[in-house]
Amino acid sequence: MKIIRPVHLILAGLVLLLLASCGPAALTPSPTSFPVPSLTPSPSPLSPTAAPEGLSVSGVVLSDPDGVPLAGATVRIRTTGNARTTDSTGHFTLSGLATGESVSISAWVSGYAINGVAGVLPGAANVEILLRLITEADNPDYAWQPSIYHEGQGENQGCAQCHSAAATGLAFLLPVDEWLLDAHAQSTVNPRFMTMYTGSDVNGNRSPLTQYALSRDYGRFPLPPDLTQPYFGPGYKLDFPDTAGNCAACHVPVAAIDTPYDVDPAQVSGVAAEGIPCDFCHKVWDVRLDAATGLPASNMPGVLSFEFRRPLEGAQFFAGPFDDVFPGEDTYSPIQRQGQFCAPCHYGVFWDTQVYNSFGEWLASPYSAAGIGKTCQDCHMPHGNATSFARPDQGGTLRDPQTIFSHLMPGASSTELLQNAVTMTVNASRQGDQITVEVTILNDRTGHDVPTDSPLRQVLLLVQAAGPDGGPLVQVDGPRLPDWAGVGNPAQGYYAGLPGKAYARILEELWTGVSPTGAYWNPTRVVSDNRLPALGSDTSTCTFTAPAGGSVTINVSLLYRRAFIQLMDWKGWDMPDIVMDVERVEIP
Description:
- There is one protein chain.
- This protein is of the alpha+beta class.
- It contains twelve helices and 25 strands.
- The chain has helices at about 5-20, 160-165, 175-180, 190-200, 235-240, 250, 255, 280, 360-365, 375-380, 415-420, 565-570, and strands at about 1-5, 55-65, 75, 85, 90-95, 105-110, 115-120, 125-130, 210-215, 220, 285, 305-310, 320, 330, 350, 355, 425-430, 435-440, 460-465, 475, 500-510, 525-530, 535-545, 550-560, 580-585.
- A hairpin with a 2-residue loop joins β17 (about 425-430) and β18.
- The longest helix has 15 residues, at about 5-20.
- It starts with a strand and ends with a strand.
């Protein structure tokens, strides 16, 4: 047996190997790390470190304006790991300072805004830091701030004023630049979401409204679409034309925050049309989860499971992953470093059927283990080469790149992430007049099922065996790809009936019997689910008739497809398959 990889795949593998050993290592948790009870986590950049030697400063942290000492406050030499917590009297001492070098000292405690003092010289013993209590009220009349640049004053200019590297000469992107390239910024214009919502194709052609029949026992019930007539795929507004639904609770959150069932995503404007803007995530105070399950309540999608702190007029408030950001009106929010932050929009139950569950899959895996696991942010907001999250001329300070999360948030459209998701192993052999190909897929580098989230997604394993003349060998045993992999020309991506296997969660509409379906706003049931859980594996064996003589070439491809091909044809979605892995084996 001889394995041959095309040169471009070898180079791609080397690139991925280099990436894995450098910055984006957080994308790929090592399978050997779980479960190992003795594994020691690396210290968080927000965790106090061992007391360094050197000069010190000391002082007290008090509440403003009443002057009550604040115990348990984190006091830090800004942008460093040199931190301590205040004692029962609010006092602190920070050591390890160099002679003559002034420092900035920050302080934060839960429920208060961050504050600090700049220009503190080593040896100072009377540093006083006042922290302002954050109101527990949430203001529904708050005007959301734009992410992109707008004419105005101060924060009304938009987040890009300080958090975009445009025209600055910086060698890296800042958060707004990254967010603009991310799917969260496209949630109100994503053609897949919008055409599924409206029931049209990308050219605006709309399917007929859903037709109904009457049953003496059940009353009015929907009929399947008439495919003898022009049809452009399903749509929420075809089934429920008189309601808006709760799609906006995740896709248009700033518009839906107070009216989650009354927002039509096709009708929004202003900041709401930015999708999931910066201001939304940085107004999150906490996430409401069921104490027994650790999951959101099934009837509380998106904004319904978030707790917000929208400030009153004349004030401002931002929650973030750092406890040393001052001056300003910021606070440290531990939830922004935790996978639970993603739960409200990445877990969803419709008509008692669990549809979205990437958060729950992660929660049930070893990757969520406290202290030794990986969070959603570790993989989808990996550290890059940025040394600041704000422009230097707008107060951006130099930081360790390993403390700054990327806002690119790669997902189902990221070739690099998908090629770094699983490991495929191919073994092929000749046994008499038969060729046996065994393929194992191991989900060793993804913290949830593969594929996950949208039930439209699938992973296709394609096994091709050719004789010495290049013609395909006859398959005599083993799995074949299902009809929903596409009936038609394999050269155009229609793989039904070919040797291989499909991994997907297949839903069927209860009333119409349509399956597979992505119209999960209707009552559905799970027909099958053979996706690969975290650290799970699956082995497929295909057997072919061997030629009388000459070598045999085996080509095995693992493809990621973001929607069923029939649905893509109806909707006009142009989404080529992403090659996750390719193996070529020659058998003499």
